[in-house]
Amino acid sequence: MNVITKQIRVYGIVQGVGFRPTVSRHAAAVGITGSVCNRGPFVEIYAQGSESQVQQFEELLKNQPPKRAAILKIDSHPLEESRKYPEFSIIESAKTTGEIFISPDIAICEECKRELENLADRRFHHPFINCTCCGPRLTILDALPYDRERTSMKEYPMCPECSEEYYSAATRRYDAQPVCCNDCGPRVYILPPGKTDKTAITNRELDAGAAIQNAPAIREARRVIAEGGIAAIKGIGGYHLCCDATAESAVQLLRTRKTRPMKPLAVMMRDMETVERECSFTEAQREILTGHQKPILLLEKKEGGRLAPSIAPDNPKVGVMLPYAPVQLLLFDPGEEDGIQMPDCLVMTSGNVSGAPICRDDRDASEELGYLCDTILSHNRMIRIRADDTVMDFYRDAPYMIRRSRGYAPLPTLSSREMKGCVLAMGGELKNTFCIGVNGLFYPSPYVGDLEDLRTVTALKETIQRFQTLLEVQPEKVICDLHPGYNSTLLAEELGLPVVKIQHHYAHILSCMAENDTTEPVIGLSFDGTGYGEDGTIWGGELLLCDSHGYTREGHIKPFLQIGGDSSSKEGWRIAVSMLYSLLKDKEKTAELAEKLELCDAMTLKMQLVMADRKINSVVSTSAGRLFDGVSAILGIRKASTFEGEASTALQFAAERWVKRQRRENTEKQENRDNTDTIDTKVNKENQLSGGEKDRWSLRVDRAQQQEGSSLVLATDLLVKGLLERRLSGEEPEYLAWLFHRGLADMLIQSCIRIRQEKGVNRVALSGGCFQNLLLLEMVQTGLEKENFTVLTHSLIPPNDGGIGLGQAYYGMMNP
């Protein structure tokens, strides 16, 4: 037999997914000898055998990798000279330099779930059950290569039984780094009341009676929840605040304690049967819900469900996820042993004070969550990197990311362009996610939070340092926002590296370009709440002509005066008053209308107008987010917001209710063979009004655009004026909300047509928080596609500020 030897290097997500054990099993199956070793950036294999055997082995590598692996490339080279291998062995990991791929945390697999529920299994009800296919990865990692001694599991020596499984190629736990059992692993416990300076209680202290532990601890948490209380639960990437999602009193108690009156709460449901009872979903959404990442998925509520009304007030959707950690499954246990009847829907909202990062250890939890909950179920497996739950919507039956974190971070975005070097991008001030670019790979971090809170800034510093350690990189420069007062900017300037500042809305478009792997020029529609403009004003409704090296501002919505500083971002009535005053240019008429629309009292209005006249605490703005807020107030839908985007989303939901009602009525009419107006014919009539009506207000964008200098200015003031007149004449607010979306979308489409005529660019990128609004997104994308534009949208990178770190990093790598 002619024996050959090949050196094979496999790149991708090949650490923490059982790759080496799988390679060993494939080698045994075809009868080759050699070795496999983790090198950090890749897995290195020496395969020795006949040409046929080695070929079969390579086919198995390509076609039957571990379930959770993601192979990006395989390099295979025959060796002219090689030592003889007597057997195939897994050898100790050895570090080398190169591109690094880190596995995200993986939800519990079906095999472990069955063992967890099997009374005869030695891991029955073990809160930390895992195998090579599931369990924590990123959140417990200290350094690469991924081996137990470089994770937080190094504190827990394996018992003989676990050790045997770990070293036996025949088991599912062969080389599974977090492997443990009830005898040798971490433990869950009820954190005693009061503050503590310790990050965790050790097993030795627990054995000495320091706290209620293991099954009694889980039973206590279940009891609190079942009786209507609130429990803080430590999971894989941090704590959740948990209560009965079917009990209105429990949900209201949580809202009161957390001072969160309206913001939707995520719900963890026991199983798919429960999800089917409560929500509508597609087969593609089912696959995401039951997959190994298990994000929070925004699903349409069904009528007649059991969820408490205040879970997601005035919202047609609810954020749903299935249990992904063993301890969560144990919370849902039917209660046959302890007699506690648990609900099948639990609120699982991030365990943090508003604005602060998610809590991850006992010290954090005792300080920040103690007064919010009735008990704290903790554990002593240390969390090295926080990881909030990922939040995902669906658009055109495909994932549309809202918050990218657990299960997805830090999977890199790849560029097909050749790039060299390393940059650190600081990301946004809100929804912060930083990004490290290394050659053609971009590693977005898990969600960090809002940097207005100094605790989040501390978390950002710490996570950046840990990422640099894991990726084994030293950035050559740092990219940050243009705003001089942002904490992200100030931190960038403290790092002692060259600093490059780029404009916020340009970074949004770059993130969309990077996700779609393009460097071709695009027309960028960058619509969001706030971004610092190069002219010192607030931008947010921007039409940019971009490539990977720079941009020009081709247009924007009609500027307005944003009065009231930070308060104006939460109080849409202030924007409404400002717009009325700008349109009417008369204090008495503005006061009269403000009173009719019940925007504010007379004294407050007087103060607002004085601030406008004297430009006190006021700034010129083209913020699309504030435009939405102002229209929402004028239409009487939402005058103020208790959380970011509340008024804007309420406007969207009102428009969507009108659309659904029209579709339902049209269906009924068609069934009755009545050919009355459809939604489309009603739109056409709006575009074919009489000349006098056109003079008052028109959706036609050629009349709604004006030239100011070299920029297109969308006449959103006329749009607001028309909506105001219709509102005062008694037209339905929900229809007017839809008309606002339709009018704005038409303006954007016609603006792109004009820019294409002038600049010859046929590609449009849609980014910014306003494009989380799927109604606006669909209107704009469909309209552009009808005009034969190529449209780039986001998918697995958020359109909001959680994505701009990628755009910043992309700019840094494209402009060395």
Structure, briefly:
The chain has 816 residues and is of the alpha/beta class.
Structure, explained:
With about 800 residues, the protein is α/β, with parallel strands linked by helices. Strand 23 and strand 24 form a beta hairpin. The model is unreliable at about 685-705 (pLDDT under 50).
How does the SSE layout of this entry go?
Elements lengths: L2 E11 L5 H12 L2 E6 L3 E9 H13 L6 E9 L9 E3 L19 H8 L42 H8 L20 E3 L12 H5 L6 H13 L4 E4 L4 E6 L3 H11 L8 E3 L2 H7 E2 L2 H8 L5 E6 L15 E5 L4 H6 L13 E6 L11 H7 L6 E5 L11 E5 L2 E6 L9 E2 L7 E4 L9 E4 L2 E4 L9 H18 L5 E5 L5 H8 L4 E4 L1 H12 L6 E11 L5 E10 L2 E8 L2 E4 L8 H13 L2 H10 L5 H13 L3 E4 L2 H11 L11 H26 L7 H8 L4 H6 L4 H4 E4 L2 E4 L1 H13 L4 H27 L3 E5 L6 H13 L3 E3 L11 H11 L2
- Globally, the shape reads globular
Major sheet: 11 strands, mixed
Q: Proportion of β residues?
A: 15-25%
Radius of gyration: 29 Å
User: Which stretches of 5+ consecutive residues score pLDDT under 50?
Assistant: 683-704
Mean pLDDT: 91
